[in-house]
Amino acid sequence: MAKLLQVENLQTQFLTSAGVVRAVDGVSYDVDEGETVALVGESGCGKSVSALSIMRLVAEPAGRIVGGRILFQGRDLLGLSEEEMRDVRGRDIAMVFQEPMTSLNPVLTIGRQLTEGLEIHLGMQIEAARARAVELLGMVGIPDPARRLTQYPHQFSGGMRQRMMVAMALACNPKLILADEPTTALDVTIQAQILELMQDLSRRLGVAMLIITHNLGVVARYADRVNVMYAGRVIERGTAGEIYANPRHPYTLGLLRSVPRLDEPIRAKLDPIEGQPPDLTRLPPGCAFAPRCAYRVDRCAEVPALTAVGAPGHLSACWEAERLAKEVAA
Amino acid sequence: MTQPLLEVHDLVMHFPVGGGMFSKPAGVVRAIDGVSFNIRKGETLGLVGESGCGKTTTGRCILQLERPTSGRIVFEGIDMVTLDAAELRAVRRRVQVIFQDPYSSLNPRMTVGQILEEPLKVHRLVRDKGERELRVRDLLVQVGLLPQHAGRYPHQLSGGQRQRVGIARALAMEPALIVCDEPVSALDVSIQAQIINLLEELQARLGLTYLFIAHDLSVVRHISDRVAVMYLGKIVELADRNALYEEPLHPYTRALLSAVPIPDPKIEAKRERTVLRGEVPSPLNPPTGCVFHPRCPIAVDRCSAEIPPLREIRPGHWVACHLA
Description:
The complex is a heterodimer.
Chain A: E1 3-16, E2 19-32, E3 36-40, H1 47-54, E4 63-72, E5 75-76, H2 82-88, E6 93-96, H3 100-103, H4 110-122, H5 126-139, H6 145-148, H7 158-170, E7 176-180, H8 188-205, E8 208-213, H9 216-222, E9 225-230, E10 233-239, H10 240-245, H11 250-258, E11 307-308, E12 315-316, H12 321-329
Parallel strand pairs in A: 3-8, 3-9, 6-7, 7-8
Antiparallel strand pairs in A: 1-2, 1-4, 4-5, 9-10, 10-12, 11-12
Helix pairs in contact in A: 4-5, 5-7, 7-8
Chain B: E1 6-17, E2 27-39, E3 44-48, H1 55-62, E4 70-75, E5 78-79, H2 85-92, E6 95-98, H3 112-122, H4 129-142, H5 159-171, E7 177-181, H6 189-206, E8 209-214, H7 217-223, E9 226-231, E10 234-240, H8 241-246, H9 251-259, H10 265-270, H11 301-305, E11 311-314, E12 317-319
Helix pairs in contact in B: 3-4, 5-6
């Protein structure tokens, strides 16, 4: 399948009073057409900043993309002018944010927020745009869409607002949707609804998705491929099946083991990852996970590159990936 | 059997909404609508449900941060609802709380040491300054921090460390019962397990009793002895942990459990899923009969007419469903 998005050696930094924060530190990943790819990691690992970088929405002047390429359908988004980029945003690449209440405009009707993009990007007339908006709301399962168009975001529940965000993202038939923690702010039963909806629509319409999340469970069901991030770098990549069955990075293994699971017998004690998440202004030289790692060796003072391990397409950035594999299997 | 540490009888909390200074309220939010349960000494009762189900309000009533509309909250044999402010202060020391967000619940202008000393001063537990400092050191070590953390401010700590300070503050009062209101949901996955292990160690060492309020069903299963499921201000199911997770009897509990994603693609591919229709109705205007009936996959006519009482279907397994 053709590569839709290729992020190559992306580096995004923030200048803070405490020093330079290398939020994204040489990250590469790609998304095929129609594929669902996940970026998984904890707060501060750079997953959201990497998505904002794709949209060129990193807040300047504190934040800057200092290196790398973001190829979308072969075109480097970092080389586009601001006008050209505006055409890409919302039309070719759309975004679904975590908190629908703060990302919708509270003083515009739902209808206006849906039709604005249609009029600007697709040059639709008001009537046509309104008809399309009704269709979109129906598609995301909002009952009585014609009446709902005249309402404001505060009249929608959390789940409905997130459905509305999905409708907005789909409005201009994008090729790629970036979903940044799309269900984190929602209740479990509503989460399930939204995720099923997004999966169904992305398959039916052939839209690729980049899902950014900290929830390993969400990823298991919905992603084809998974990138695990830690301290601004991708540390493991593979198909969802591979990553869960044969994790080859101590951090991935630690994440999988630290969560209690409904399908497993209850353990006397959980196995947390010891220590604290890294301070991005004071990263250790070498592997950033080394201070918390049970597999640490002298060589970890050098940064390990992402290298192939086991199954095709499975990569890990760990010197001790082989030893880890043997011990997990044993 | 011994008397439970805490008994909640028919707790009701209604909040009036709308209306002005001179006009009557426009409506009533039925946040809690007749909730009863017991907590035995040394056990952990998990309280789960989605946002707006009343689980946090239940915790706040037990802490007496809200005065309930009606009902009784009997702690160590004393009904807290009837106490005046002075009597309450003495009881309150025995019932402490750990909040969800350790950042907004710690005073940013106080050092960790000052935060931990304050309750000792207010309640005149330790009058001597030197002894207080020793006690603060001891508390920090108990929760896995270092004595030198006493000089730090909350913003100098990580999320997990801040939650440890929140736990230490609760322990300072030597409580019998701790209401843990979503104590790990604001933390990163790799840190959650550390805090859960700490809570369990402290319980074993100090004989604490927990009311563990959370929306994460996997975490609640891990830590609880018994679990109560709330929906729209009512308990719909209450049972021993294993009974509830292995044989859930209420359709809402079943739907909740099936909605929890499991981090394993092979299992996920095979799992049956009950995706509930619609959303939680407004507690301003709850449905007639069983509050769950508009979303229930197995509802019959009777469900919209009659309120199902919480019945003990098997020993210790309580369900509020006509069809259970």
